[in-house]
Write a structure and sequence with these properties.
single chain; alpha/beta; Multidrug-efflux Transporter Regulator, Chain: A, Domain 2; Rossmann fold; five-stranded parallel sheet; 13 helices; elongated
Length: 315
């Protein structure tokens, strides 16, 4: 393991006001982090007792702030950044900014480790790994290259009897909570009617729908997320009330996917209704269903679905 730290000036140069301007972190927050976590760990002071910060301190503070902005708690972010600093694993840019085009597999924390932490019920380890991933990569990359394969791995382990239902629920709900947090912390949405996302009646597997919702939200699309098992009569009432620009329906299992054949009995098709789209694993395993459900099929992957939906809305 490389333990050599980046060459960053550790001479105390900046007072707290300058650091606030440089990092965007309020003075009260800097005082709170020093009091609660002893962070940053340098202790330089002026003769009058005022705290001084080095360039390295500023670097560490920026890394922590970037992780908090992505949904990590302050305590988890401080712990992750401190650990990476001790092990010489801060990003090469010394800012914590993800490197363009870098794969998640190049990070110290990988989705294999995240899956193992969840299999072992070690949520503290999972928090640390998630924090380290966010120091290198955007939530979008983590969703597509980290969370999605972990959910697949969890499903396979459950199907093969290697983990229990309780194990699978604990792990998937941990990831679900992270996704829900990102769903409400994205950039300001576009000024337009929302995209409604709902699972088919009887469908309880919402992971793919939730990931799509987060990716849309982070691209600035307004999202109304309904989640699991939405009855058509309730969905139709909501659609009538809020007049969404689009509706995304997901069927992961065959039986709920077949129920999507009936959606036109409840919701007005375009041009008088929203753009209705559908997707899910059942349509990949049973491609004949794609011809039986009205609307736009979004494709076999989340990436394809995102691109097709955005293209359709743009047109």
């Amino acid at each position: 393991m490389n333990t050599q730290r980046p060459e960053v000036n550790e001479e105390a140069l900046f007072n707290i006001g300058a650091v606030t301007r440089m990092t965007g972190i309020p003075i009260a927050t800097l005082h709170a982090w020093e009091r609660r976590y002893g962070f940053p760990h340098s202790s330089a002071r002026t003769q009058g007792g005022h705290r001084l910060y080095s360039e390295k301190d500023v670097t560490l503070l920026r890394c922590v702030k970037e992780q908090i902005d992505q949904g990590i708690t302050a305590s988890q972010a401080v712990m992750a950044v401190h650990r990476m600093d001790l092990e010489g694993r801060l990003p090469a840019s010394h800012t914590g900014t993800p490197q363009p085009g870098a794969s998640l597999s190049s990070s110290p924390a990988s989705y294999d480790q995240l899956a193992e932490a969840l299999f072992q019920h070690d949520l503290s380890w999972a928090d640390q790994l998630m924090g380290e991933m966010l120091a290198f990569h955007s939530p979008e990359q983590i969703i597509l290259e980290g969370i999605e394969p972990v959910l697949v791995k969890l499903g396979e382990a459950w199907a093969e009897g290697r983990i229990t239902v309780a194990d699978e629920h604990l792990a998937s709900n941990y990831l679900r909570q992270r996704l829900l947090m990102w769903l409400v912390t994205g950039p300001p949405p576009k000024q337009m009617q929302p995209i409604v996302l709902a699972c088919a009646p009887g469908e309880l597997h919402e992971g793919s729908l939730l990931m799509l919702g987060v990716l849309l939200r982070r691209r600035g699309w307004p999202v109304t997320y309904l989640g699991q098992d939405v009855p058509f009569h309730d969905l139709a009432a909501l659609v009538e009330q809020i007049q969404p620009c689009a509706l995304v329906l997901v069927g992961m299992m065959e039986e709920p996917a077949r129920r999507l054949i009936d959606w036109p009995d409840w919701i007005k098709p375009a041009p008088h209704g929203p753009l209705v789209t559908f997707a899910g694993r059942a349509f990949v395993l049973h491609p004949e269903l794609q011809q039986q459900v009205q609307g736009l099929y979004l494709g076999d992957t989340i990436e394809a679905g995102l691109a097709r939906l955005e293209d359709s809305l743009a047109r």
